[in-house]
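B., you asked whether I could sanity-check this one before it goes into the benchmark set. Here's the sequence:
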Amino acid sequence: MTRLQGSNQNRTVLVIGTLIAAALIALALFAVRGKSSGDGKSVSFNLDGQPVLGKANAPVTLVVFEDFKCPNCKRFEEEFLPEIRSKYIDTGKARLVSLNFPFIAQNNQLPVDDSKLAAQAAECAFVQGGNDAYERMKAILFRAQGPENEVWASKSRLKELAGSVDGLDQTKFNTCIDNDETAAAVDADERQAEQAGVTGTPSIYVNGKLVQSYDAATVGAAIDAASGS
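And here's what the prediction gave me:
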């Protein structure tokens, strides 16, 4: 999991101030983890109008928080999700709901918050083309993923990538990105993440309970437990 943490830069400036900041961050993360569902308690999410993979009436719901700049999210999507999808989602046992937690660009103090821009691009595709367009855009974004500490998801690059999504009206997509039309939706997802105590990505909740790892075996076991299998 890629975790939310303080930047590694400028640690040599004002030692006392850095120590105080580190202490405050540690206290904040401790408080956040105390609110998380790692203790077995369930967290409730507002999933209305969110991208869904699978059948709407599936008995088990996976809520997945991701950042498109997160290499562990890319690994989850490309290495582990295909197995989860074939065994649980395609068979109607579970559905997966995607939410955004774009923190890496800010965490690395990048000049452009391309974590948020990439999330906005996926949401623009969703607004225009629904779940299918969202999934196609998401796959393209993860394939195109660049380094965490570099800006790669610029608006111009996102427009280029959207050109590979079948069925998207490029003009409408460009307008959506240029005008930040989905910024509010991304912000709403981020607020849900913060309220749930999410500290990194990917964070996966199965019927509201945080799964401790994102590998297929662990997630599958959580789905089985939630469905009584």
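One thing to flag: The helical segments are 15-35, 71-89, 104-107, 114-143, 155-162, 170-178, 183-196, 216-227. Otherwise nothing jumped out at me.
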